[in-house]
Structures are given as C-alpha cells and as structure tokens.
Write a structure and sequence with these properties.
heterodimer, A: alpha/beta, D-Maltodextrin-Binding Protein, domain 2, 2 domains, 12 strands, 41% helix, 19% strand, B: mainly alpha, two-stranded antiparallel ribbon, 2 strands
Chain lengths: 337, 505
C-alpha cells in the first residue's frame, strides 16, 4: 500500500508539473525528458550541481518535461563526453563539465574535443584554495612554500583528486612558479583528500572551498591562499572571524599561480540556435532562484556566468591554457601535440 | 548520559505519524530496489533526491527528507539478500557472500530459514552499529582519521587473507580465478597515473568492468544455464510457507552469538574506516569459516554462513553513515548520494554538524533505530511470500529472471553493451562451475582489486617506495601482522600440530 501511495504521489506531481508550466508560442521546447549527463561519479562537485539544478527545475516548474540526471563517469568522464558527441543533433541531452573536458582527451588520447559539442552557457567557476593542517607552522603560502623547498624535493606530500587532472595541474604550476617540489598523491575524491589532510597523511591540498569548508570551520584545516586573480567576494563569517574574503590570493601571498575550473553546460553538436537559446534561458531562470544563490555562497563559487560567443571564446582560451600547462608538465598522451 | 537525552529528543523529532509513514514507504521502496539487481541503493536514492528537495524547505522537513532516503537505504540493504538466497543472484555487491550458504539452504528447501536468518542478522548488525554511533561517535570519528593509504592497504590485505584458503578447489584454480579478477579490475582509467589500461581503444571498455554486471552474469545467468542443463527444475520448491519458520529459525540463531559479535565488530570497523559493506561481508564470512566449529561445512547450506556476512554488511552499511556525517567522507556509494543531498538541502556535513544541527543529527540517529525495526517487521512478514516465489515453475520464472537480470545490467550505466557483457560473464560462470573453478576469489578481486592497488601505490608514493610504510606505526603494523598471520595460518597450524604430535609422542 505504501508503495502505491508514493507512486501515486509521484505521478500526481509529474502531472502537475506538466500542466502548470506556461510557455510562449513558437519557441522551441523539449518534447520528451531531458537527460542531464554528469561526466563524473555520484557525490562529487559536478554531480551535486547537476542534481541541484534538477531539483530547482522541478520545484519551480521551469520545464514542462522532466530532467533526469545520469552519471557517466567512466574513463575520467570520457564515457559521458563520447555519449554526447555521438548524439549529434539530439536536443534532449545536456552535459555539465568540469576541467576533464580538456584534461581527459589530452591525457588519455580518447577522441573528443569540446568543439564536438555546442557550448550553452557557463554556470559558475569553481575556486581552488591551498590548504594545510591547522598544526602546520606556516603562516602564509610563502612560508609554506619555503618550508617545502627546505624539506627537499619530494619530501612534502600534496594530495589531490585524480591524476593529470586539475589538482595535479595546479600542483605542477605551483612547482614551476616557486621551484618547490612535491610528491603528488592522487585520491578518488575531494572529501577524501580533505580528511587525509586532517589526519596528516598528506601535507597540503588544493581542495575546492566546498570540499574543505566543514573542516576549516571545525578548526582542523587552514586556508593559505586562493588560486584566482581576485579574492572571493563572500564576506559572511565562516570560521571564527574569518570569511572567504579574508583569504589572500596566491599572487598577494607571493606565489603567483591562478586556476579556476569551468562549471558549464554543453549540448550535442548540430543543434539549432533555438534549442540552445531554450537552455540558456532555462539556466538563467535557475540562476535567479534563492536556492541557487545560497549554493553559490556556501561553495564560495566565482559567479561569472557567460553565454554565446563570449562563452565559446572563453572555452577556447581555456583549452589553449590546458594544452600549455599539460604539455609543460609532460602529461600529454602519446600522439597529442 | 547526555547522549540518552539527545536521543530521546531525536525520537520526539522522528516519531511523528508523517515520519513513520515515510519510514514504511522508504523501507518498502528500498526492499524493491534492493531486489532488482542493478538498481542499487545509490541509484534509488539518487532518483528520489530531487523529490525531497521541496520537502526539505518546510520546517523540520530536512529530517523527514533524510528519514525517507535513509530508509530506502535500509530497505535496499535488507532487500539485497532476497534474490541472493532464492536465485543465487546478489541484488547488491554486499550480498555476494550471502549466496555462498544462502542459496544452498534454499535448494535444500530451507529458503524461509535462510531469509529469516539474513533479515534478523541484518537487524542485529545495524543495531550494534547504531548503538556505537549513539554513544561513541566522536571517538570513532577520530579513529577514522588515522587511516591513510598504508592503513587502507593493510585492511584490504586482511580481507584477502581472511578469504584465501576458503575456496574448495585446488590452490592453482583459486589463483587463476583471483588473477582473472585482478586483470578485469585493472581495465579502465588508472587513478594513480590517469592513463587508460587494457581498453584496446574500445570506447565501451573505458568505464571498466562493473562489478554488478559481472556478478549478475556469473551468478545469475550462470546458475540459470546450469539449471537448464540439469533438468529445468528449481530445487527447494517444497519450502515451508508459514510464519512458524521465522520462530523456528529464531530458536536456532542464539547459537551463533560468537559469529554475530565478530561480524558486527568487523562490519563496524569497515564501515567507519570507511572500507565499505562489501569487503566487510567477505571478511566476516571468511573469518566465520575459519573460526567456526562447523567451518568445513560452510558452502553447503549453513545458517551460520548467512548470519556472518549479513550481520557485517548491515553493521558496515549503518556505520558508514558516521564518517559521512562527521567527516563529509561517504563510506559507500549510497552514502555519497545522501551526502550530496545534505549539501543540496543546505546542511554541511562535518565535525560541526553534531553541534549546529543537533536536532537533525539526533533525529536521523533515532530514525536509524526506528527504520530498522520497521524494516525488520516489513521483511519478516514477507518471508513466506518471498519463499513462495520458488514454487512458481522454472519455465515461467527463468525468463522473468533473465529479463530482470538484463534490465539490471542495463540500468547500471544505461548501456546495451553491458547486457552483452552480462551474457558473456554468464557463460564464463557456467564454464567455471563445470570445470570446478571457484568464483568467489574472482569476484573479491574484481570488487577490491582496484582499491587495493590504489592504496598500495599511494602508500608507495608517500613512502618513496619503501615497504616499511606498512609497519610504520602500531596501528598499521597490527593490521598487517594480523593479515600475514591469517594468510599463513594453514602452514602455522600444521606446524603447531606437528610440534604437538612430537611432544605427545
């Protein structure tokens, strides 16, 4: 009986969503369920954002059809990207990206490129912060880098998510800029990295704010600098008297390195401008909801959100940047130039 | 006794009619999800997550939302055992070990007893874990922090050691099966180098071999092929179909109290660390086989062989929620989705959650007690119903099972390739059975191989290639020592017997 009640309630909710959404005539809109692909596993940053978008769309009846989140994280996201690449002209499939849009094809040689997809819009940029354990004597990023140099090459351990992906790229960029040398230890997820840092199994991490904020607030970790060219704008107190805004940029702290990660939406290739516009507008509506704003603030995201040509230009520039960084680090797959 | 007070407060939060109704709904849904292979607890929770979003906006609604989701999780833990016992098809990875004795029991016509034992042990395991969470969660949270890569590797080594030697075939066949498992586990992206391995440029192989697809094929399809060969008949159709079987089994269960305690301990440890419910169930089964008086007869249909893995799996599944709440590290895939839920609802898992959102945390803990009681009631009353499925003629049920298996394999990644892969594993399973190769080592290597390799290489990176990392502190030395002791136990016990024999003579 219970099961039936739930099913009924679900059906009722779906029917309600279908009837109550109002749409202007002539514009394109989805005629069946939209698949929202996450090229990563469940529980990570991209997955959280996709599921939040899905919940917001359902709650505010922003779309007549339902949105279904599908995780295709195999091969460092290649599974998801290849799926969308193969769905040429299908307007009922969108994908959220992280930096693996660039790093996976470069590092593994799997045949896809962002140009196989249609850029829709940027949702936000994810920040990276240099974290150390609370017991680390370093007072600033500069102190810490000096200590790493003093300890000798490879003695200090930097933990991060995955290999030849954003965390390791930042580590290499940091090494190049400062001359310090870490031993990089790859883990499967950001939460795990933060915990390993609390347990002192590694010496530092470049966790996203949302991955480490709980441990910062509990006084177990301390942030040294943010890898962006501006400070984060959020002035609400987070840990004691400190806000995100109090964390200096790495440039200010004397280690001039910056890196932000794209959280953006793409569609398959060969879709019409009408269809792209539909999703641009949809995401704009999502961005205006209080739930989205709160999420941005909790995760201290950089809220740059562009679309159209500006967006494709940004993506093209980011690709060149990644190619350069990965080439320098020696991370390119054989046959990639 | 501040905890008791907080817990009572929690019960007050959880014990509304609305929440109780949610518990029943969640558990029932969870059992269904657990029964369908492929549609695991993680998928089930993920699908329903957006539904709970508007729920969490009402005052007190966050607690209701997590009660609903966590009850789906309990239900899935219970439900995973059902198909393992009835059809030799594990609905969830952690119920693989349950098939070893559960399925033979069902074939002997004791499906009811096996189900009752499985459900009751699950409940016991969960209860132990919840009590642990209630009273010593801060201590546990600190303990979990001590686990770095060397510690994780030693725990996995312990799991393998506890399990090695329990296979009945020749050692050579065991090694072949295990190495096949390791090779399959290596396919796909390698965490440590970020490179693809063994994919031979087939894009289908990018994601590697999913454990569930292998298991559905090896066990489920393989079993059906065998049954077809042996004469289209289900053994065990004479299963008793009344509630008496529950009481009779309960009479038998207290005999296995040692196994229950040991398995609960293993489960709690693995859940907290977080190693996960699957290794916990394998380790508990292996230990029970080694330590029980009846150990030699394990695999032929012993109730104790169902008690051990089920207790451990549930204890681990429950205690896995603790690192999620206090550290923000999920102990299982399902916990990972629940964690995402917390963040979406605006809660921040971490050390301060217990302080800042005490209402929520204690409501959740209280719902763990209630949810498991509700779960036990739901599944126990259904034992005769589940067991009666075996009375359906094979000619009808076999196609149904095949279809369910195919849907399950498809659901894991929404990929048709996986369905063919499942068929391939089915044939492999059949060949293994015919040639008397053990499947358990293959499955264990497939599910743990990847993580074991990762933690070994992470440890080696950290220690710059020195094996001394596995003896670097008392904790890791103890676990490694235990693992080596277990690994060489057959040799050691032989030596002891020899020495004794000589002294006696």
């Amino acid at each position: 009986m219970q099961k039936r009640t739930v099913v009924k309630a679900t059906l009722a909710a779906l029917a309600f969503t279908a009837v109550s959404a109002f749409t202007p005539a002539f514009a394109w809109e989805p005629t069946k369920n939209v698949e929202f692909i996450v090229p990563a596993g469940t529980g990570g940053g991209a997955d959280q954002m996709a599921r939040l978008v899905q919940s917001i769309i359902a709650k505010h009846n922003l779309m007549k059809q339902s949105m279904i989140v599908v995780n295709k994280g195999g091969g460092a996201g290649a599974e998801g990207f290849l799926d969308v690449k193969g769905a040429k002209g299908d307007p009922h499939k969108i994908i959220i990206t992280l930096s693996n849009l660039f790093t996976t094809p470069l590092a593994t040689g799997v045949p896809f490129n962002w140009k196989d997809l249609t850029p829709v819009r940027m949702l936000a940029l994810d920040q990276f912060v240099l974290w150390v354990n609370k017991d680390n004597p370093a007072k600033s990023a500069k102190d810490y880098i000096e200590a790493v140099k003093k300890a000798g090459p490879g003695k200090m351990k930097m933990g991060g998510t995955g290999s030849k992906q954003e965390d390791q790229i930042i580590t290499v960029a940091l090494e190049k800029q400062s001359g310090a040398k870490f031993t990089y230890i790859p883990y499967k997820g950001g939460g795990e990295v933060a915990t390993q840092l609390v347990g002192k199994h590694i010496d530092s991490s470049v966790n996203n704010p949302i991955e480490a904020v709980a441990q910062w607030r509990a006084g177990n970790l301390k942030p040294l600098c943010v890898f962006d060219n501006e400070r984060m704008p959020y002035k609400g107190k987070i840990a004691g008297d400190y806000s995100w805004n109090d964390i200096p940029t790495c440039k200010e702290a004397g280690v001039d390195t910056d890196y932000v990660m794209l959280r953006g939406i793409f569609m398959a290739g060969g879709v019409t401008p009408d269809q792209v516009k539909y999703y641009v507008d949809l995401m704009e509506k999502v961005r205006q909801t209080p739930e989205w704003k709160k999420f941005m603030e909790d995760g201290a995201f950089n809220q740059t959100a562009i679309s159209g040509k500006e967006y494709s230009d940004w993506v093209a520039k980011a690709e060149t940047l990644h190619l350069g960084l990965m080439k320098d680090a020696g991370f390119l797959a054989p046959g990639k130039k | 006794m501040q905890e008791i007070q907080s817990l009572m407060g929690g019960f007050a939060v959880a014990m509304t009619w609305f929440n109780l109704a949610l518990m029943f709904a969640g558990v029932t849904l969870g059992v269904l999800i657990g029964v369908l292979p492929g549609l695991g607890g993680a998928n089930g929770v993920a699908i329903l997550l957006p539904l709970t979003f508007s729920m969490s906006q009402q005052p007190g609604g966050t607690t209701s939302a997590i009660i609903l989701l966590s009850c789906i999780y309990w239900g899935a833990l219970f439900g995973g055992a059902i198909t393992s016992i009835l059809f030799n098809i594990p609905g969830e990875p952690w119920s693989v070990a349950t098939t070893f004795d559960g399925y033979p029991l069902a074939q002997k016509g004791r499906a009811g007893a096996a189900l009752t034992a499985a459900f009751t042990s699950s409940f016991v395991g969960a209860l132990v874990a919840v009590i642990l969470i209630t009273f010593i969660s801060p201590v546990i949270a600190r303990f979990a922090l001590k686990f770095g890569p060397p510690e994780f590797f030693s725990v996995y080594l312990l799991t393998f050691s506890a399990f090695v030697g329990m296979a009945k075939g020749t050692p050579f066949k065991t090694i072949v099966a295990m190495m096949t498992g390791f090779a399959l586990a290596a396919v796909g992206i390698d965490t440590v180098t970020g490179q693809l391995r063994l994919t031979f440029e087939f894009t289908e192989l990018l994601k590697g071999f999913d454990f569930l697809i292998a298991v559905i094929g090896l066990f489920g399809i393989g079993e059906i092929l065998l049954t077809i060969e042996e004469g289209l008949e289900f053994k065990g159709a004479q299963a008793k179909l009344n509630m008496k079987v529950v009481l009779e089994t309960w009479k038998e269960l207290p005999r296995y109290w040692k196994t229950s305690i040991r398995s609960s301990a293993v489960g709690c440890l693995m859940g907290i660390v977080p190693g996960g419910a699957t290794p916990a169930s394998f380790m508990a089964y292996g230990l029970a086989k080694k330590m029980s008086k009846d150990g030699e007869h394990f695999g032929t249909g012993k109730v104790e062989g169902v008690v051990a893995p089920e207790t451990a799996a549930h204890a681990a599944g429950t205690s896995a929620l603790l690192p999620m709440l206090t550290l923000g590290v999920p102990g299982s895939p399902t916990a990972a989705v629940l964690l995402g839920g917390l963040l979406i609802w605006g809660l921040q898992p971490g050390p301060l959650l217990f302080v800042e959102k005490a209402d929520f945390v204690w409501g959740l803990i209280a719902s763990m007690y209630l949810g498991n009681i509700v779960g036990l009631i739901v599944v126990l009353t259904c034992v005769p119903l589940f067991a009666s499925i075996l009375r359906i003629p094979f000619a009808i049920i076999a196609p149904v099972i095949l279809v369910i298996c195919a849907i399950g394999a498809y659901t894991v990644h929404n990929s048709m390739f996986d369905v063919w892969l499942m068929v391939g594993f089915g044939i492999l399973g059949y060949v293994f059975k015919k040639l008397d190769y053990p499947m358990a080592p293959l499955v264990l290597a497939l599910v743990l191989g990847d993580r074991t390799e990762d933690s070994f290489r992470q440890a080696m990176l950290g220690s710059q290639g020195s094996l001394s990392a596995f003896f670097a502190n008392p904790l890791v030395s103890t676990i490694t020592g235990l693992a080596l002791l277990l690994l060489f136990w057959p040799l050691i016990s032989k030596l002891i017997t020899l020495a004794r024999g000589r002294n006696g003579a």
